[in-house]
Amino acid sequence: MDKQTQTELEAAAFRRLLQHLDAHKEVQNIDLMNLAGFCRNCLAKWYRAAAAEKGIALSDESARERIYGMPYSEWKTKYQK
């Protein structure tokens, strides 16, 4: 498999993960952390780090909004228990 195809498949898997998390807002970050060792906030940090590696400045809030699909404060109010 060439590098381009691998990158496309990884990106597709990431998008599917975000769609799954968006469809299952009842899954709390603490549940993810306990079961999988990472949560939505970890994904946002990794997203921001990847952007930084490409020379793209991204705030924590912008990265979280990409992962949560809305401002983090709004998600927290609506869905965090």
Walk me through the structure.
The protein is mostly helical and 81 residues long. The chain has one domain (3-79): SMc04008-like (SMc04008-like fold, Orthogonal Bundle), CATH 1.10.3340.10. Helices cover 74% and strands 0% of the residues. Helix 3 (40-53) crosses helix 4. The longest helix is centred in the first third of the chain and has 21 residues, at 3-23. The model has no long low-confidence stretch (mean pLDDT 96).
Features:
single chain, 81 residues, mainly alpha, SMc04008-like fold
Give a quick rundown of the structure:
The protein has 81 residues and is mainly α. The protein contains 5 helices and no strands. The chain has one domain: SMc04008-like (SMc04008-like fold, Orthogonal Bundle), CATH 1.10.3340.
SSE class: mainly alpha
Give the strand tally.
0
Largest sheet: none
Number of domains: 1
Shape: globular
The secondary-structure element order is HHHHH
Tally of separate helices: 5
* Helical content class: over 70%
CATH third-tier fold name: SMc04008-like fold
Uncertain residue segments: none
What is the end-to-end distance?
Answer: 43 Å
Q: Could you report the average pLDDT, rounded to the nearest whole number?
A: 96
CATH superfamily: SMc04008-like
In angstroms, what is the radius of gyration? 14 Å
Based on the structure given, which CATH architecture is correct? Answer: Orthogonal Bundle
